[in-house]
Amino acid sequence: MTPLEPLPPVTVEGIELVTVRLPLATPLRSAAGTRADRPVLLVHVVARESEGWAECVAEASPTYAPEFVDGASLVLRDHLVPRAWAGPTGDALALGTVLDEVRGHPMAKAALELAVLDAQLRVAGRSLADWLGATATAVPAGAALGLHATADDLLAEADQARAAGAARLRVKIAPGRAVEPLRALRAHVGEATLLQADANGTFRLDEPTHRAELAALDEVGLACLEQPLAPDDLTGSARLARQLATPICLDEPITSLGALEAAVALGACGILCLKPGRVGGWITARALHDRCVELGLPVWTGGMLETGVGRAANLAVAALPGMSLPADLDPRGRFAPDLADPRFPGSDGLVPVPTGPGTGAVPDPAVLADVSVVGCPPG
Ligand code: MG
Predict the structure, then answer these.
(1) Which of 21, 156, 229, 312 could form a disulfide with 361 if both were Cys (CB 3.0 to 4.6 A apart)?
(2) Is the pTM for the entire model greater than 0.85?
(3) Are residues 153 and 82 in the same domain?
(4) Of all helices (H) and strands (E), which one includes residue 143?
(5) What's the 30 CA to ligand 1 centre distance in angstroms?
(6) What angle do CA 225, 323, 97 make, to 5 degrees?
(7) Where are the alpha helices (DSSP H) in 176-303?
């Protein structure tokens, strides 16, 4: 695809870290536990010409990734924002090189870079989707189903998600709670429904019962099996990929273009779950998308239980031309209240891609009435 077009820099006058705790409409269960609410870290860039907002995808605890909300807030305040102030503060394309002086912390970097980019795009009057080269004006929505104790509970949740417009179902699984629920779900929804499973790295190849479960899952007809093994077990993923017909999807370990190259070279990655907030930002996400297209590697846009603010930004990536599965845009209300319009599917089953300037979303001031704000002044 064509290179990203430089945008006029903005004059940044203030950077704030805003934290708000939002209750989940229904508790969400995964291999890492059950969550009833979500602390959301937002980066707010105040520029002379405009403002920009971005949601950091870090979660409350470092269970999905090493980053977590309090840690991301600290690394932003003490390491990333001071470097931004000392460098090209108001130019997202140049900012990435400066932020890379800090090792790791892609979620924190992504939020700062996107907040600056949002401000620049608002001044330029361009949408994030348009700037990134998105071609779709609306995309199908995929739902993520929690880890359930019984197959009946899973089927009930699947019915809710499909009634709300889900075009595919992604099911959280764990050892001992994978094969029977997914067989029951496949029988319930039929062969035509796109099903995926996400183990969040909970299976081990040196455990015979786990190997047997993974082999049995291969018979369910999944569009992909996401992160069956630990994030650092790339050689194990490569071995498993040779044994299963189901494509192995990698999520957690692909935090950069280099990580993707390594995984692909090993034969460990048959499909990529691309989360812009996990790979260091939307600019890197475009590069990963482009590389997947070059390699002929299927790719789809994952989500991290974002509010409407984060979902709007993810939609810009979900609308890129190389996407091969529906994005994580759960069509059910996750937050009550939400920070912004969560953008549910219309009557055609598709979620419209934002066309307004920037990401197309700003947090509702009423929901931000009682929040923690940390200012990050220059110098
Ligand atoms: Mg995942």
Answers:
(1) 312
(2) yes
(3) no
(4) strand 138-145
(5) 10
(6) 100
(7) 179-189, 208-217, 234-243, 257-266, 282-295
Q: Considering Cα of 344, then 42, then 273, then 316, what sign does the dihedral take?
A: positive
- Residue 333 has a pLDDT of 83
Any bridge partners for residue 301, and if so which?
274
Give the residue carrying structure tokens 């979660």. 59
The count of structural domains within the chain is: 2
Query: 6: CA distance to ligand 1 center in Å?
Result: 32
At 127-175, the pLDDT tens digits run 999 999 999 999 999 999 988 878 999 999 999 999 999 999 999 999 9
Cα of 198 from ligand 1 centre, angstroms:
6
- Phi then psi dihedrals of residue 323, to 5 deg: -70, 135
305 CA → ligand 1 middle, Å: 11
Distance from the alpha carbon of residue 228 to the mean position of ligand 1, in angstroms = 9
The CATH number that applies at residue 143 is 3.20.20.120
Which residues have a catalytic role annotated? 172, 275
Q: Residue 212: phi, psi to the nearest 5?
A: -65, -40
Structural domain of residue 73, as residue ranges? 12-125+365-375
Residues 297, 275 share a domain: yes
Q: What are the residue ranges in the chain where pLDDT is below 50?
A: none
How many contiguous H segments (helices) and E segments (strands) does the chain have?
Answer: 12, 13
DSSP string, 162-174: HHTT-SEEEEE-B
Question: Please, which residues have CB within 8 angstroms of residue 172's CB and are 6 or more apart in sequence?
Answer: 29, 30, 31, 144, 145, 146, 147, 197, 198, 199, 200
